[in-house]
Every structure is written in C-alpha cells, then in structure tokens.
Amino acid sequence: MSKSNAIATVTATLRAISAEIARDAVPGAEISTDRPDAREGRRHTAAINLFLFRASVNSTFRNHDTPTRDSRGNLVQHPATGLDLDYLFTFSGPSVEAQLLLGQTVAALHAEPILTPRRITETIDLATAANQDAAIADADLADQAERLRVTPIPLDLEELSKLWSVFLQVPYDLSIAYRVSVVLISADVAPRAALPVRGGEALPTSLPPWIERILVRLDARQQPTHVSLQGSNLVGDLEVQFGNLDPVPARKIVSTGEVQANLPARLVAGITPVRVIRNVPLTDAGADTSGQAATRPTVTGGAPGTSAETRPLSSNEVMLVVRPEVEQVSYDRSTDTLTLTLVRVAARQRGTLLLNRLADPHDQRRPGTDDVSIDFQIPAAAAGRPLGTVSLPTLAGGAKLSPPLTAPQHNVRAGNYLVRVRVDGAESILGVDEASGRFESPMVTIP
Question: In the chain, fewer beta carbons within 10 Å around the N or the C end?
C-alpha cells in the first residue's frame, strides 16, 4: 500500500520514461503533463504530453480490505483502495516527428510494461536531487507489493471523439491511451493492535480438510510412488482418494504438518483428481455446512457395546498427472509390427503413439523429417497377452487398428525412433543420457 502521493509518483515516472523516449526518437522534444488545451500555442513543437484523464476504482481490489473496523468502530487494519489510472499520451509537432514519438512510445512501453521498483526509485531520487516534485520525495510506491502494469486502452473512433470533445475548440493531435494498474492507496492512520492470544484449547473441528499443495515423490524410473499433501485442517482420521478408487490410508508427518499416501496399484495413466477425506464423529460432522461431505455412507464400528458412527468430510480436489511408462518396445520386421508394453494403463484407454525419428542417434540436434503420431486403444487382457501390451498394426484375434502402423501407409523410413506414449492427457517420459544431456530411451530401430 502507498501514500496519497502515489498518483503523482506514477505520473512523474511516466514522464521520466517519456523523456528517454523523446531523447531517442526526436532529440529536443518537450515533455509535459498538462491538459491538451494548455499546449494550444505550442502545437507545432515536437512534444509528448501526458494527461491523466480518468482514475477509477479497480474492481479486483474494491473490497479486499473489508472489514477495516470492528463492531465497536475501532480501526483494525489499514483501509486501502485500488485505483486504475488512465493516461492520454499526445504527440504534437510536425507530422513525421509526432509519428516517430508515437512509434517509440508504443515500442518502449511494450518492451517494459511494468513500472519496476527500481524505475520508481530512480524517478524519486532524480526529482529530489533536482529540487523538483518535492511532493513525491517521501513516496513509498516502490514498496507496493502489487506491480504496476502499463497496458494500452483500445479506443475506437467514437470513444476518442468523446474524449477530445472535453477540450473545447482544441484541434486533435495524434494520441494513444494507456492504463496503469493497480495503485493501492492507504490513508495515513494507525489501526489498533489487539493483544496476542496466550494459549488455546484444541477442539474438534467440523471444517473439511483443505489441500494447498501436492508433491509427487518419484522413483528411479521417474514414476510416482506416493504423494505428499500440504494444507489446513489435515487432522484426525484421514484417508486419500484418487479419482473414483477406494480411499487409501494417509500417514501424518508431524514435523512438517503434511500427510502422505501411497499410489493405489489400480491407478492408471491420466489426469486424476485427488482429495483428502477425514472421518469425524457424526455429532461433529452434523454441524458442517460446507456442503463438501463425501458420498460414502456412515460407518458404524468400534468395540462391542459402543457406537462409533462417523461421517466423511471431503477436501477440495487437486489434479495429479500420472504418466504412462513404456516398459518395452520391439519391432518385428516379418510382420511389420511394433509391440509396446505399457505400465499404468487400463483396458480400452485411448492413447497416441509418438515416434520421433533421429537422423543420427549420436546427434539429436538434427531431428528427422518422419515424426509419426498414431492413435490406438489399449486392448482387453487376452490369453498369453499381459494387460498393457499393444501390438501395432494388429491385435489378438486379428482386429485391425485404424490406422495400422505400416511403412507404406505412414511412410515410416528406416531409422532410430524415440518412443513416447500419450494416454488421457499424460505423456510418458524420455530417458536422458547424463553425459550428453540428450534423450536416449526408449528407442526402437526400424530397419
């Protein structure tokens, strides 16, 4: 948040940027921050004029500080408002010079669309050293957390005409509008600070868990083995559910406050939602109004003679990408068939085979021209065929893939190909040679 002189600081910073633009485009051009009609007698002099024609409340930050006062009317936090500042850049002078100034301004603001803290600080320091703009000498705009972004405002001919009609009897000059957002301005008041809480009592909570972050732990083959979930309300009897599979027990890590869960064996490749479920006593869960109760029924159990009815409360969902793995790939020249053995796939999942031909297996900076992409479907398990084995172009029983992988149909040249598989939005990982840093596996040779 910034002081009330933040608006003047933004204008001074844009003026400093315009001075650099004018120096590069038209040396000697004037820089001003007046109303366009104030330059009526100097229209034939090359100049850039900045005019703040509108300040509006930013809709995103309209109520971000609510409430600012407690029930007694005491101030509890700094009241702040976010503003969007709209500037009209006017370019005067001979036609060619005005167009040069416009072009240089558009290029400069596109290349540097953010008023950085360094740029703002330099403007304040220069103004202080030259005894100019004393009102911004103590500005703290550079410390604002939100960065100030400069974006062009598209104005059609009608909107531009309405804007210039405000300046009576002022001829039109070449102009363009920009918006600076967002400027957070706070009043110079001090809120009352409450005393800290000395202690508390742990009470059962009916709030559902909340996941803020998911971390995936990988094995040597870059395949996930378990997940670590971080967030809030991760207490009590917890389980983790992957998609529509049965929940698995969660392990609580006291030192980090996170929970961990192993990936189910039935979890298949694709993008899978993950959520945490907490089983709470029915008396506590009955107070929940979040509407996020899981759909599993109430569980009754416990020692003989006791009742332990619980209700599951579900967290928000986060997405986990489970990648397929190409465990084995081979090519049979006699049948012109490419056979894949995949890990973490299910019957009838649809996928895409990606082949990238290498002109030289030792120089992968020169990709071949024959990059092949073929759609396929995981077949159902058959006798003598483990689930996840795909043969192209034919499957068990002579069922044809459409289209089959044959050299004549796909113009697959002889050579070495890197093999990838994409299943339900998740793509397998290529192995990298640690010495050269290049992809090396899985690879198949088609003679």
Answer: C
Closest of 283, 5, 22, 339 to residue 144, by C-alpha: 5
- Which pLDDT score is estimated for 54? 93
C-alpha distances out from residue 82 to 59, 60, 63, 182, 191, Å: 8, 8, 9, 6, 19
Residues contacting 35, CB < 8 A, separation 6+: 51, 167
Cis peptide before 304 (omega within 30 of 0): no
Query: What is each CA distance from 248 to 2, 142, 226, in whole angstroms?
Result: 49, 49, 11
Do 354 and 372 contact (CB within 8 A), yes or no? yes
3-class SS string, 294-361:
CCCCCECCCCCCCCCCEEEEECCCEEEEECCEEEEEEEECCCCEEEEEEECCCCCCEEEEEEEEEEEC
Neighbours of 412 (CB within 10 A): 19
Instruction: Please give the full DSSP string across 370-422, using - where no structure is assigned.
Output: EEEEEEEEPPPPBTTB-TTEEEESB-GGGPBPSS---HHHHT--SEEEEEEEE
Residue 236 identity (one-letter amino acid): G
**49 close to 170: Cβ distance less than 8 angstroms:** no
- pTM tops 0.70: no
> Rounded to an integer, what distance in angstroms lies between the CA atom of residue 100 and that of residue 88?
17
| Parts of the chain with a pLDDT under 70 | 1, 41, 65-69, 76, 130-133, 190-194, 199-206, 221-223, 282-308, 359-370, 379-412
Kindly state the greatest CA–CA separation across the chain.
98
Q: What is the pLDDT of residue 36?
A: 86
